[in-house]
Specification:
Elements (H helix, E strand, L loop, with lengths): L6 E3 L13 H10 L2 E6 L7 H10 L4 E5 L10 H14 L4 E8 L7 H17 L4 E6 L2 H11 L6 E3 L6 H9 L2 E5 L22 E3 L21 H12 L3 H16 L2
Parallel strand pairs: 1-2, 2-3, 3-4, 4-5, 5-6, 6-7, 7-8
Helix pairs in contact: 3-4, 4-5, 7-8
Length: 259
């Protein structure tokens, strides 16, 4: 019997309230489709308990990160940062994430976002963990901090990568894999135009579900089983079978997360 190639979703918000009415069915649909490894980013302290619940229900499939998301950096950011530090000291996580800078919605907390991003990179280095970067309208600001922090023990994933070819090469130069999801299927997504120039060893797959559903589900709720659509698109781009895309990107995810 042929064993199904494992597909890894390196970024999914399974605890999102958008899944409250059918979470277990949605996870089962993904597992049935071959997507059986789920890496769960943190947003802020309000999602910690839900993440632990998911891990206890799906111990073989769910792997947790800990971090403070840039759009949740508010006036209480020191308190939230302390929560991240306490959780990281308490137990094992597979990454510090998602962390970064987001200037799309609001620029008023830029200096706090920079402090929080830098501090969480340092925590990741301390625990020898990868970072998972959230970047929106902030490539220059993120690269500035990565340039200061770059070292052999700085590595991770540039989540939901949607930059240019040059930005992709720069991200890779900081030991980052590119997290590729639904955007690669969009007509105006642009990354499909140069992705075949990027060696597949630098790519991991993600959904960012419930956000950023691929074509033909664009605009609807995203879920992990739709990662198959991303695999098929990469199969076209790289001229490899879907099984090869799944196998290589899962192998890459193991290199990052250590599992």
């Amino acid at each position: 019997m042929e064993t199904k190639t494992i597909i890894t979703d390196t970024h999914t918000h399974l605890y999102s309230e958008e899944f409250d009415h059918d979470r277990s069915e949605m996870i089962q649909r993904a597992i049935d489709a071959g997507v059986s490894r789920f890496f769960i980013p943190a947003i802020d302290s309000t999602c910690t308990e839900s993440m632990y619940d998911l891990e206890s229900k799906y111990p073989d499939n769910v792997f947790l990160m800990m971090g403070l998301h840039p759009t949740y950096v508010k006036d209480n950011y020191l308190e939230e940062l302390q929560h991240v530090e306490e959780e990281l000291a308490k137990r094992k996580f597979y990454a510090v994430g998602e962390i970064g800078i987001d200037l799309y919605w609001d620029k008023t907390h830029l200096s706090q976002q920079q402090i929080v991003f830098r501090r969480q990179i340092q925590l990741a280095k301390h625990y020898k963990l990868p970072i998972v970067i959230h970047c929106r309208d902030a490539f220059d600001e993120i690269f500035e901090i990565l340039e200061e922090e770059k070292s052999d023990d700085l590595f991770g994933i540039f989540h939901c990568f949607s930059g240019t070819y040059e930005q992709a090469l720069r991200a890779i130069s900081y030991n980052m894999k590119l997290g590729i999801g639904g955007v690669v299927t969009f007509k105006n997504g642009k990354i499909d135009q140069f992705l075949n120039q990027i060696d597949l060893k630098h790519i991991v797959l993600e959904t960012d579900s419930p956000y950023l559903a691929p074509i033909p589900y664009r605009g609807k709720r995203n879920e992990s089983c739709y990662l198959v659509n991303v695999v098929n698109k990469l199969s076209e781009i790289y001229g490899l079978s879907p099984n090869e895309i799944a196998a290589i990107t899962t192998y890459n995810s193991k290199g990052i997360f250590g599992i």
